[in-house]
Design goal:
single chain; 114 residues; alpha+beta; Translation Initiation Factor IF3; 2 helices; 6 strands; 24% strand; globular
Length: 114
Amino acid sequence: MQCDTSGIKIMNHKFTGTEDLAEYDAVIAQEPCDAAELIIKTCAEQNIPYCVILCGVPHARLSGELDNDVYAWYAYLLSTYPNSQFTIWHNGRFSSGCIYSEHGFDRKYFSRND
């Protein structure tokens, strides 16, 4: 499967949560660390589809609280943003997860190259 990269805009700056995301079809964030929850919250508030690939360690909540383990952090994100879906991978040493909006990612963004 290949992703159509036309129209993709790469942002490489600190995400503040004040960004107007209306011009974007979706937000994809790769291991944004402490910005993860802020990205999810901002996208949810602006009704922008998102996919946030999380690393295998917990990061601070917006409140500043830090969970003891990554599974507690994942559970917190899912309970706080209930319209999200979650996938987790185990590689034997640690786990990594992906939290994404339940709407907005349809097949039009992908084409199978078999």
